[in-house]
Amino acid sequence: MKLLLLVLGVLGVLAVQCRAAKDWRVQPVSSLQKLTAKTRGNLEPFSAMPAQLRAFKGEWECFQIVITAGDEPLKNMRISSTMLATHLGEFIATKNIQIYRENFVLVDKPSGNRRLEKLWWPDALIPLSLQQKIEIAPGQSEVFWVAVQAPPEASEGEYYGAIDIDANGKSKQLFVSLQVEKTALPKATMRGTVAVYYDALRDWYSKNWRALSDEEFAQMKKQYYEFLLDYRINAYDLPVDWNLNEAAKYLKDERVLSVRLPPIDQKENLQNALKALRENKAIDKNFYYHIDEPIFEDFARVKETTKALRALDPKIKHCVTVHPSKSLQGAVDIWCPNIGDFFRLGHIEKTALAAERKKGNETWWYTMVEPKYPYPTWLLDDDAIGVRMYGALMAQNKISGFVYSMAHGWGPKPLENLESFAGTNGDGTLLYPSEIVGESKTLRGPMPSIRLMLLRDAIEDYELIRAGIRKAPSLPNGLLRLALPRKTVSIPKTKTLQTVRFARFPGDEFRAPETKLWLRHDSKNLYVSFRATANDLEKDWCAIELAPLDSKERFRFILTSKNNGVVEKHTGDGQFRLPDFDWKFSLKTTAKGYEVEMQIPLSVVANQKQFRFNALRRIGGGSTPILLRAFPDAGDVTLMPVATLK
After folding, report:
1. Looking at residues 544-552, what average pLDDT do you find?
2. How many helices and strands, by DSSP H and E, does the chain display?
3. Which one of 178, 303, 305, 371 is most buried, by most CB atoms within 10 A?
């Protein structure tokens, strides 16, 4: 027996010794696949795709490289690119090829998009020139981003090259091809604008890096402004004073399409701005944007401001972040609604925007923390397509510009935490301060994010589609990423259980707590019962939404877990509380949650036999409550199910 065990032991040792050590791997991945990880360095499953690119002259195209260590750690890695060349000797220099390491951030409080798990998400792109050492632990992966530009002067044809990776005394190559098309990327026309608050930037550097001298501050402003120009984006404000000769350089730059005017109460500064714009034949580049997301009570101020601006110069363009409204006719030159019309009825009316364009007004839009999936977002924890599809969406909807709240909304450690406004991640952040990488003593300026790269790709898509060079993809519902099924609801006179699964969107994998819904009606009222399972009642509520079939207004009846009843009316002018609305409600807590009863007058839908209907429930006491719907409609009144009284 001892001999047998000895033989088996020897054979086992030999088997281990004979097993080939697992080698390190290099895999190319599309830029449209955002790579995530449940633990740092251990990526979720992804699809490899050859680095075969196609670009018009002047266009950028990107891809990713996943390098995974085998049984041995990878040390002292070196990654570089060869030039790209055709068989005829034409070449694209390595200066047109940029390589970055992707920085991953743990998102333990998801924004509320498609994924709700705690995950590591990539975003900041750190130039290899700032990487002192690249090492990968056994079995783990690092991801690299490669951006390639077809130079405007490049000849048409197929170019070939490689990415060289050296590690542990061994070299590997990833082959790259780039088909350069005959046509050139059109000149910029999209008026994409992003806030860069220079004083806030200086304050951040002072608190988290070191104080900047006045000379360094002037340099920093230009660095950030010109960096965004490389991505076809304009910062709101020029990086120099209006009364300086240097302002002319920017106003004459064909990449500069949008320049925000100073506030009207800064009379001298505003006059200097108008003078500089006129002298440099750039008056059409102006926009005045200092009234943000006005509610109905602010409309008078909007009108007064427009009147004052036109007295100064009729060519001043007043940009207001609001959907076209009868109440503001003649008072807005650039209509800029939220992409999901979050503050109104939940959808952008294309006919209203088209009517404004016929009057000579511009139509822009903006995104922020809302709406979320299935609308596309620019948040950190969203799919790559969420940003990239904006170009096609804007071309399809004839949107010619956008505003975005901020490019630099960081906390003290942006490479570790990107929590932002209203319980989201990455809102108001598109670039990063490179000085926090390594031990920099000199001002180096910003470095990009994956979302900024994707946004540049989207803007290039827009220009190509707008010019008829690239075909626009088919996009469901104009704005939504997924086609939402049309639903109908029958409401009987006897109390009947409606078996529905409350969810955020069709196919949502999130396991929501159980919510049962009963409906009935008589000649005057709709009667609703909820039975809600809940472990934590904080911020939990149930609601019913009703709207007439013409979708011109919507009523939301909310009952909170604290037995507070709230009625909201959503119209083309915004959202309004109706504190004196006559309806009945009650709430009773139970061992498993709570029960809700509502009696809602059918007069809100003019006592019609058919109307739009939905039931909602909000759950979660954390930073990001989740809104569930009995029939997912993305918050769009026109997509709400049609209810019929039986």
Report:
1. 96
2. 10, 37
3. 178
Is 70 exceeded by the pLDDT of residue 124?
A: yes
Between CA 142 and CA 120 the distance in angstroms is 12
pLDDT band at 358 (very low <50, low <70, confident <90, very high): very high
Tokens of 574: 């915004």
How large is the average pLDDT for residues 616-624? 79
CB 328 within 8 Å of CB 300: no
Return the half-sphere exposure (C-beta side, CA atoms, 13 A cut-off) of residue 283.
12
Question: Is 16 a residue whose pLDDT tops 70?
Answer: no
CB 130 within 8 A of CB 33: no
**CA distance linking residue 85 with residue 175, whole number of Å:** 12
Q: How far apart are CA 44 and CA 178, in angstroms?
A: 28
CB-based contact 48:29 (threshold 8 Å): yes
Q: Which domains does the chain have, with CATH numbers?
A: 20-184 (2.60.40.10), 191-466 (3.20.20), 488-645 (2.60.40.1190)
Buried b (16+ CB within 10 A) or exposed e, 423-457: bbbbbbbbbbbbbbbeeeeebbebbbbbbbbbbbb
Average confidence (pLDDT) over 387-396:
96
Q: What is the mean pLDDT of residues 156-180?
A: 97
3-class state of residue 362 by DSSP: strand
Measure the CA–CA gap between 339 and 333, rounded to whole angstroms: 18
Q: Please answer whether residues 641 and 489 qualify as being in contact, where contact means their C-beta atoms are separated by less than 8 angstroms.
A: yes
φ/ψ of residue 141, rounded to 5 = -125, 150
- Six token digits for residue 1: 């027996």
What's the CA dihedral at 110, 115, 117, 122 to 10 degrees? -70
Q: Distances in Å between the alpha carbon of 466 and those of 256, 392, 442, 474, 546?
A: 19, 9, 42, 15, 39
pLDDT in tens, 22-36: 999 999 999 999 999
Measured in whole angstroms, how far is the alpha carbon of residue 222 from the centre of its chain?
Answer: 26
Bridge partners (DSSP) listed for residue 545: 556, 614
Contact 63, 147 (CB under 8 A): no
For 436-494, write each residue's pLDDT tens digit. 998 888 999 999 999 999 999 999 999 999 999 999 888 877 789 888 888 999 999 99
Residue entry with tokens 């714009």: 277
